[in-house]
Amino acid sequence: MTDSQRSSAASLVITSAPSVPLSAAQKSFNRLSRQIARIQRDIQDWETTMAQIQRRALEELVPVQQQFQALRQDLLLQLDASSQTLRFGKVARATLSQSISELALGLLQEVPEGTASHGAIQEIYQRHTPEPESPLDDTALRGAVAEYFDLPPEAIAEESPESLVAFVEQMLRERSAAQLDAQLAAARQENAEGGDDPEALEPSREKGQTSAQSGRESQRAAQAEQIRQALQTIYRQLVRVIHPDREPDAERRLHKTVLMQRANQAYTEKDLLQLLALQQELGQIDEQMLGTWGEETLKTYNRVLKAHVEGLQHQVEEIQARASACVGVPTFFTLTRRDLMRDFEETLREMRAAVVGMQVDLQKLQSEEPLKAWLQQQRRAIRRQAQRDWDTEMYWVQNEA
């Protein structure tokens, strides 16, 4: 939808003489029309902002990220060479190998497989990464399974290694089913003691609709049919005038093709305002005619507009969710366009600063003494991270207990 089309739709406001106040339905129509125009402007602003950020990311951020990745690869090669040429103590050697291993692991996740760089990084990673601990042997594994499910060891002695996984899955399903049965039984007992109907706990049992429910369903169906007929009537009135197949002049046929595309899109999206705007452009309705709509017609139109407002609001929420995902914040966090642009600028500044810092490190760590001081900093960082991991593990252990 172009700005001129949106402006045309926004101009659909019912006016009246000063001595004749607008009815409640007319006021609702005007309010919903203005609300739709505001939300559509908001969507357009979001799309513009997202496009600007995408363009700047390709032109500014991606080159800096690529430069930073190349510098990290240079640092990896330099540290690996230092580990083979310089003499360090046991602790310093272990710290250097761990730092090389972590740097290589991060690069392996970024550099495409099959490239020469990926192969070189993989080789360095394998040389500086200790062998993983041996997995549990068959006997220990069976013992762990038996202990977890509180079973005697002979209960799974006949299980083959291939069927042991299926056995564990079956036991987990049975345990979950037993827990669910126990919860339902407890709920039934509680409701029985409180005088409630235990049958209410059976969600799968269908119950007949009450007369009130049936009436509401009939009313909703009737309203939906009224909406369908109202949109169809306007659409047909437009088609009779703008259908390009009925136009012999080539230039006017092209113009009508554009109008027909707008009408088809508006009808598909149930965009009443766009259909009415087209009618206004074509002279099928004018400002005075808007005030002649009856109350029932207005009520039907207002239902269409309310549904359109809900759809547009959902579009805004989807755009905000995509924007939140881009900056790594929870989707329930309401992000503004200013927040998104500010986050991009901050990311770009941080990445540029990281490049400068990496260039300084590459130059500084060529000498042995600065490298030793850097390894001491790395060792302290590794210890802090290990302590945080331990604290986190203990927190969950205590809460589970």
TrEMBL record:
Disordered: annotated span: 187-224
Source organism, top-level taxon: Bacteria
Coiled-coil intervals, chain numbering: 22-56
Keywords tagged on the record: Coiled coil
InterPro entries, per the entry: DnaJ_domain (IPR001623), J_dom_sf (IPR036869)
Stated name of the protein: J domain-containing protein
The organism of origin for this protein: Acidithiobacillus concretivorus
